[in-house]
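[Discussion] Sanity-checking designs against the backbone

I'm trying to build intuition for which residues belong where. Below is a structure token string of 195 positions. I'd appreciate it if someone posts a full sequence so I can compare it with mine line by line.
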């Protein structure tokens, strides 16, 4: 992977895609470490995180993460998730952020040299091609180490560089803390690294 110190970099994180890939590989993302990792490679202009939220829930498990990201260097883009019932009668939730990511990548690519996309979704192949025609370099971060692979072959081939998420894990994985001996301690101080 080639990054240059004077290169302007923007990160575009498909939240649900990155979460699923990291979970399948057996680790959690330390988002502060992720920012630091890419800030050390060039000039980090923007880091954007995309996720859909269920609005009618009293508490969303994503809300603390979204709030933390918003206060710690990420621009967070959310939209309401859509709930529907599929043909088998099962309740499903849909929250595709592809259009939001594509619009922001095209808009911000004018001001950066290198786009880093955290997604394995093959729908982004044409987006990458369009950004490359503008003279920008594109790195895709996902994983091929799962069965089945979580990155579309056409996306991986279109990117200038493919970065295996599993290889990046030592730099961005959240440290696992042992559970307190007596279970969860309500008085335990909040640690921003656990988000």
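Best answer:
Here's mine. Compare freely.
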């Amino acid at each position: 992977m080639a990054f240059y110190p004077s290169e302007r970099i923007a990160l575009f994180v498909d939240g649900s895609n990155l979460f699923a890939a990291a979970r399948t590989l057996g680790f959690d993302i330390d988002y502060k470490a992720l920012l630091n990792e890419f800030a050390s490679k060039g000039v980090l202009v923007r880091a954007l995180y995309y996720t859909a939220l269920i609005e009618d829930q009293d508490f969303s498990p994503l809300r603390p993460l979204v709030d933390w990201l918003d206060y710690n260097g990420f621009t967070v883009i959310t939209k309401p998730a859509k709930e529907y019932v599929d043909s088998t009668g099962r309740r499903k939730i849909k929250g595709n952020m592809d259009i939001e990511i594509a619009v922001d990548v095209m808009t911000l690519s004018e001001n950066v040299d290198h786009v880093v996309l955290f997604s394995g979704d093959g729908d982004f192949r044409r987006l990458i091609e369009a950004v490359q025609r503008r003279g920008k370099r594109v790195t895709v971060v996902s994983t091929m180490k799962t069965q089945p692979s979580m990155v579309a072959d056409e996306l991986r081939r279109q990117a200038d560089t493919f970065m295996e998420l599993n290889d990046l894990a030592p730099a961005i994985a959240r440290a696992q803390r042992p559970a307190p001996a007596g279970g969860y301690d309500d008085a335990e101080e909040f640690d921003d690294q656990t988000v």
